[in-house]
Amino acid sequence: PRPHPTFRVRPLTCTETRRGDQQVVHSLGDGAVHVSAARHDATFGFSAVFDAGASQEAVFEGSGMRQLVELAMDGFSCTVFAFGQTGSGKTYTLMGPLGQSDTQPASPALLGLMQRSFTCLLEQSRSRASDLALSASYLEIYNEQVRDLLSPGPPCALPLRWSKSRGFYVENQLSVEFESLEAIVSLLLQGSQRRRTSAHALNRHSSRSHALLTIHVRSRAVSAHPAPGQGWGAQGLSAGASACPSKQGTLCFVDLAGSERVKETGSSGELSVEANSINRSLLALGHCISLLAKPRGKRTHVPYRDSKLTRLLARSLGGSGITLMVACISPSSRCLSETLSTLHYASRARRVTTRP
Question: Which domains does the chain have, with CATH numbers?
């Protein structure tokens, strides 16, 4: 299958409206996006497009997210990542409004793809006749350092390793088991509050790191039919019950830091260093996607090692994974160049094929 590019166009902000920005991006329906501005008139096609009026529930149901949860339970490696310019609505789409906490939960209607997926996952696990174990790990990549967002104490850099059996993996990362919606949402909020954010001219709460929350789904189903006249001992199980092979699936949510132009954000000092690090890793990701989009016979070496981000996403992009891409864009005329860049980025990704 191919990655499933989904587009979301956020509303114009109050600042953009007061400034007199024009809306240059319009949804045409049937997965089409039209960009109309001076010297630019183009239409792009995607799996689904959600305009400014789309609810969080509509995005969850229309993007294929529910099917991704079910595939993870069936043992597949599934990934959803949100990308786009800084301030385009990536974190809101994945998590919902900022400022959530255990004591101040968000309105149910505003919850993002992550919380809705958790609910779907736990409902599915209760309805299936399987012994399911769920655990979560939460990382951020900040200035090319991988840091654990769930480990107690100040975040410290963790080594990124490679092995023939596991591919790229993070050594010593914490994985926490959970059984309830409250527990996994608490882990999400706990980790998100430790993530690096800063304010600049385009976004008061700009994510300064890429964040990866991974849900590990392990199951082993056993048919409950002992042989006639036998109990549940080892002999009865082998004679009358078939043990299904265990399945290990993953559901990874990737909230990419937004691409940004230092001239537009007014960044300097540490903010400028962060922006350069973010843009370099996004450039490496775009380069890998461009190479993966070529036909298999013409594909050259894909440089996953160029950044920590591409190493951790290697399996999702070109390996055995199934990927949902959510591209978030601003409709403002002032953001036109970044919007076109995001549209072309997703168009290339649409041509990538994987073998899950």
Answer: 4-97+110-199+206-220+247-260+269-350 (3.40.850.10)
Residue with tokens 């055995």: 320
Please enumerate, by residue number, every residue annotated as part of a binding site for ATP. 84-91
DSSP for residue 202? T
- Look up tokens 């919007």; give the residue: 339
Question: Reduced to 3 states, what is the DSSP secondary structure of residue 308?
Answer: helix
Q: Which two tokens stand for residue 271?
A: 């903010």
Q: Which pLDDT tens digit goes with each residue over 47-80?
A: 899 999 999 999 999 999 999 999 999 999 999 9
Instruction: Provide the 8-state DSSP code for 20.
Output: T
Is the pTM value of this prediction over 0.70?
yes
What secondary structure does DSSP assign to 196-207, as a single string? -EEEETTEEEEE
Residue positions forming the annotated binding site: 84-91
Buried b (16+ CB within 10 A) or exposed e, 137-169: bbbbbbbeebbbbbbeeebeebebeeeeeeebe
Residue whose token pair is 């380069």: 287
